[in-house]
Amino acid sequence: MRTTTCRLFIAAALAAAGVAGAAMGRPDPHSGPACLYAVTAGPGARDLSVEVTLRAGLGAELAVDRGLGAFIRDPEVDDGGGWRALERQDDHLRAPPCRSRPCRIRYRFALAEAARDVHDRNRAIEQEGAFLAPPSSWLVRPLEGGQSRFRLEVQAPPGTVFVTGLLPSRGGPASAYEATLDDLEEAPYSGFGPFETARIDVPGGVVDVAIAPGERDLPTRALTAWAERAGRAVAGYYGRYPMPRVLVLILPTGRRPIGFGTTLGNGGASIMIWVGRSATEADLERDWVLTHEMVHTAFPNMPRQQRWLEEGIATYVEPIARARAGTLSAEEVWRGLVEGLPKGLSRPGDPGLDRSRTWGSTYWGGALFCFMADLQIRERTGNRRSLDDALRGINAAGGSIAVRWPLRRALDAGDRATGTHVLRDLYGKMGEAPMPVDLDGWWRRLGIVADGREIRFDERAPLAGLRRSITARPVSARAAGGGR
Questions:
Q1: What is the span of the domain harbouring residue 103?
Q2: Mean pLDDT computed over 320-340
């Protein structure tokens, strides 16, 4: 593990780590990204100065997230004849000169005021002097940009750090980030402020941790160790971390030891998670939330009606990944599934998973789909292939939270990786219509005996070997742990 921690940072010192801005240039608008954002944060990042260089053909209308237009100040446009005032209507800027020729737009964004008045974790919030808001809140985006790419460069003053889940630009300066304009509408979490930061190497990628100011009993080393455990558990399940980089924003606040967690992708990956002021290291060691959120980074964003698969994968894979990493027992994994999977069973009159909107169907109905897929793949391949292979295949084909895919593209990639049609066939039975599942019968065949909250295993059961393989630690991990 390689970490860097301190309370105050000079932005340029962190540019090489990909978490802060540095000096910015202005590329030719006819080459490279179609849209360049140059952002300069004022003292404490309470206000942002934004200049946008637009290639011709991106349309005359630009917008920010709902309700954030009120915090745009003094918008102006320059189409080659000098700066002049630009019309704003609610959350939209209308710039007719930009429709047919290159132009520049500049404005100020009142970030501190937006965080105070909006106070929405998905749009803008303040955490003791740190401001958290996705770029869609403070960057106007052309509504006709589509798959055209944008580049973002941020310059922050001493004492203020810029952190973002956007992936670094491959062809731009070290401080630049890049994605498509379509991504910008739901781009990863970002923040400005006096964050403590740490960079953690995990197999296949890095976990960038940014800890917001706030009262906490936990030392920084405990929080970075927590992030490393979760990252290594997910990397172990997928064979490597499924993204080259993920940002974990930790907010010390609230009474619960580990609070709510949420993940945003589209052009990168970021997780925002709350940690209680009195949380202990034991709480972090027992936590499942951060691993659940990290599993989300391995799968592409689905259309809204198939979000059950995103949540189902995270719900099913999280305990298995932790068991294989040696931080959860097999008994605990199966107790969770025995107690949880019945919540995903369909009832008479229920629709398929695509049309159901209940909590049980979204999380546990999706997990039930994954459970059945795992068992069927293992049975059909003599336990040589599993859901692991399907999910790794999807990720290897480019599927991650950084992109949006239609469902069938993901299912086809997973089926190719296993040499079966299990995912396609099972979706036809569970996604589009309800399917009865005899869980009690599966428990008997797997050799899982539930006695109250106690779980025992029957090693004489016909699928006992298959059950063991689901939670078995890789040989290399067992050797490293002394054979445990």
A1: 11-296
A2: 97
